[in-house]
Amino acid sequence: MTKQEAIEEVKKLVAAPSVCPEAKAAGEAYLKAVGTDGEKAAAEALLKELAEDVTSVDDLIALTASEHGVKIFGADGAKALKEQAEKAKAAGGKYCVCPACQAGGALLDNREALL
C-alpha cells in the first residue's frame, strides 16, 4: 500500500457510518497532520486507536450469534450479518465486514505506509 492509498483508507474510515467517535477523531487528526512535523505522531495515535477498535471477523461472528447481537441487530439482521461474516472469513477475511473495520484493518495491515 502506498502512502496515498493509506490516506484514501483513512478518508474511508472517517466517512464510514460505523466508525466510532474516537477513531473518527484520530483519522481526522491524522489527515490534518499529513505533511507536517506532527504527521508521525498522528499516525501512531491513529494506529493505536485502530488496534483498540477494529473488530475481528471471529468476534463479529460471535457477536451475531449471541443474545446481545440479536438485541443490537434484530434476529434477521444478526442472522444475515453472521452469514456475511462467515462468507468473508471463508474468503480469507480477518476483520468485521463494516466499512470502518475494513478500512481500519487495511491500515493496520499496512501500518508502514502511514509511518
**Mind summarizing the main beta sheet?**
none
Mean pLDDT: 96
Number of strands: 0
Secondary structural class: mainly alpha
- Residues in helices, as a percent range: over 70%
State the separation between the terminal residues, measured CA to CA: 12 Å
Low-confidence runs: none
The count of domains is: 2
Please provide the ordered H/E string of secondary-structure elements: HHHHHHHH
Could you tell me the strand content as a percent range?
Answer: under 5%
Shape: elongated
The helix count comes to 8
In angstroms, what is the radius of gyration? 15 Å
Distinctive features:
115 residues, mainly alpha, 2 domains, 8 helices, 0% strand, elongated
What does this structure look like?
This protein has 115 residues and is mainly α. The protein folds into two domains: 1-54 and 98-115, no CATH class; 56-97, no CATH class. 76% of the residues lie in helices and 0% in strands. It has eight helices and no strands. The protein has helices at residues 3-15, 21-33, 39-53, 57-64, 67-73, 75-90, 99-109, 111-114. The longest helix has 16 residues, at 75-90. The protein is elongated and about 50 Å long.
Give a quick rundown of the structure:
The chain is mainly alpha-helical. Helices cover 76% and strands 0% of the residues. It has helices spanning 3-15, 21-33, 39-53, 57-64, 67-73, 75-90, 99-109, 111-114.
